[in-house]
Amino acid sequence: MSKFRTLMAAMTVSGMTALGLMAGAASAQTTMRIGLAEDPDALDPTFARTFVGRIVFAGLCDKLFDIDNDLKIVPQLATGFEWSDAGKTLTIKLRDGVLFHDGEKMDAEAVRFSLDRHLNAPRSGRRAEISVVQTITVVDPLTVRLTLSTAFAPLVAQLTDRAGMMVSPKAVAAAGDQFAAKPVCAGPFRFVERIAQDRIVLEKFPQYWNVANVHVDRVIYQPIPDSSVRFANLQAGALDMIERLQPTDLPAARRNTRLRVVPISELGYQGITINTGNGERAKSPIGSDPRVREAFDLAIDRAVINQVVYNGEFTPTAQAVPPSSPFHNKDLKASTRNLDRAKALMAQTGLRQPVVVNLTTPPNPDLRQVAEIVQAMTKEAGFDVRINVMEFASSLNAAERGEFEAYLLAWSGRPDPDGNLYVFITKDGPQNYGKYLNPEVDRLMDEQRTIADPAQRMAVLQKISTITAADRPILYMWHRTNFLAHGQRLTGFVPVTDGLIRLQGVRLAAN
């Protein structure tokens, strides 16, 4: 066996904004207020699905590994790992002295419990991410060994996100199905309270293993879907940081000497997911006929939407993998508008026009504007787009039940391309809301997971993108730049390409 690869001890510091004190109240504590674009879904890493949930988890739940801004894997709850048996065995060394927020030890048995829960809990959102793990063996209190059914190149990368978050076995046993109401992890902050659509409150955990690098006492996350209201609160000092500042607000933010803007090229994409096989709603023209999907796609001008809604700050695309990734397919270009071709395809179908497409859209003002532009553009090709605005977490639940035809949905992205593809386009992918099914895609997705050589893996991924570009289960629209903004009192914020707000190292000066 080769020596354990010990990861660099320098932890990635990410951006947090220091918090202002409650209005009219004096306090010795430092409270940081962060404005979120949505209200997260369940605060349980086994079941959670939202990007804003991952932002909260960055303060609440440490992972076995993390990433830095160069997409390199760095240590968190683990200190190193070793592959053996031709890539079918992964041995992980754990950090000593780590405690969960309930005082229980975060040891190899807790890791075994957490990974087993990710794998086997009914409706787990993590199962597909680590499904190749067959057995989890506790070697000693600080060593755990994972035996895989086959070699799996993305596994360590998967453990840099929710699949790598550890939860307290004692707390899960006590709370059962209600664990998300009071989650217990091993991060820098512990859970205090949650009021839906209003706030999530965390407080500093004094026994955190890296507590010397935590300089904020309390964090309050506030969901504010309206980007203009979110920005106004930042300008007024009611918030210390906001995520997803809209490009249309960039000029004002950059003129304000009391604010700092931090651009982060995301790892994910914005797209329109089509229901091709999830229940009765899949029997619509756009769900059942790829010609209709192609016509709809070709009627959309991504460049115009990008310019009108996002000031040209985003990158139009036709794929899930962003240009920053070495696995980005440079030969697969974003679709350009071709209204003549769209009309010809619609004529081929023989469908009576206009063809109705019900488009589910989250309530964010920019996405409503995008939906309205799509509505106007596709009308020229013979479509009647009917916009259904729905609260974000509720829209995810509806999509899971198949209660949609087309869904304007973004994905925040993962450092390994498998994380942008597998759960969305394979038969049993937990976020394959449209139940897209292509056996060849399933076979190729499983194949690429076993390939360690980047060039060979890239060749398989290109085959997958060629097939999905023709099937169009997801109309990939653009890769976003995530603009975070914070007050100048905040220091120590280091942005990372996943767009999460890591609290370690962040300081907030007094007013």
Question: Which regions are unreliable across 5 or more consecutive residues at pLDDT < 50?
Answer: 1-27
CATH arch. level architecture of the domain at 269-479? Roll
Q: What is the share of helical residues?
A: 25-40%
CATH superfamily of the domain at 269-479: Dipeptide-binding Protein, Domain 3
Shape: globular
Query: What integer is the average pLDDT?
Result: 93
**Beta-strand percentage range:** 15-25%
User: What is the CATH class designation of the domain at 269-479?
Assistant: Alpha Beta
CATH fold name of the domain at 269-479, please? Dipeptide-binding Protein, domain 3
Q: What would you call the quaternary organization?
A: single chain
Widest β-sheet, arrangement of strands: 9-10-11-2-12-20-13
Largest sheet: 7 strands, mixed
- Give the number of DSSP strands: 22
**CA-based gyration radius:** 23 Å
Number of helices: 15
**Strand-pairing-aware structural class:** alpha+beta
Span of the ends, CA to CA: 55 Å
Protein described:
By secondary structure, the chain is of the alpha+beta class. It has a domain at 269-479: Dipeptide-binding Protein, Domain 3 (Dipeptide-binding Protein, domain 3). It contains 15 helices and 22 strands. The protein has helices at residues 51-60, 108-120, 155-158, 169-175, 227-236, 250-255, 285-288, 290-298, 302-310, 339-349, 365-379, 392-400, 418-425, 439-449, 454-471; strands at 5-6, 31-36, 65-67, 73-75, 78-84, 89-94, 133-140, 143-148, 189-195, 199-204, 218-223, 241-242, 259-265, 269-274, 315-316, 355-361, 383-389, 406-411, 474-479, 481-487, 490-491, 507-508. The strands form 5 sheets. It has a 7-stranded mixed sheet, with helices on both faces. Strands 15-19-14-18-16-17 form a 6-stranded mixed sheet. Helix 14 (439-449) runs antiparallel to helix 15. The longest helix is centred in the C-terminal third of the chain and has 18 residues, at 454-471. The radius of gyration is 23 Å and the shape is globular. The termini are far apart. 50% of the residues are buried.
